[in-house]
Amino acid sequence: MWRVVRALAVAMIAALALAGCKNEKAEHYEGQAFSFTVYPGAQYVAALTELDKRAATAQKPNEPPPPIAIYDTDAPLDTVAAWYAKSYGYEKIASDATNNLSAAKPPAYYRVGDLQADVKAIEPLLRQLNVGADISKAQGKYRAVEIESKSSRPRVTLQRPYFDVTKSQVIDRTMILMAP
To answer: What is the pLDDT of residues 116-131, one digit of tens each?
Structure first.
């Protein structure tokens, strides 16, 4: 279920709507400390981080929100992705999730998406959270990188550009979302 929350978080910020895993056991993060490794020069995006925490609470009202942190940077997506892959100990970033049709999903991989389609998918959640975003402004394609969590380090999702639902605008920066 946390995969759904993480996906909604990215969707709210980065217009990502991923299929949920509703049958997974809920995880509790009390007492679990994550080490958020921040890309040098990245800026903390407080408004989007708090909105993601609200989204997590809306999805699971009886549980505390998971540890989430959102940053962004002017650095190119490929540069940030290579830095995170190296810091997590992953040799390379696969070109996609299929990893050359391998049965095993790679720990780090690229993907692409459409901002408008992803934001449209979370429109009901935005209404529930009373976020008056103008989703018609979510135009264009994006590239993203998914980096699998490792020990006490969270999963990292990178995306460029991303749609900021708090400002109703496409931001041409690399967003860094760290969440379980």
So the answer is: 999 999 888 888 888 8
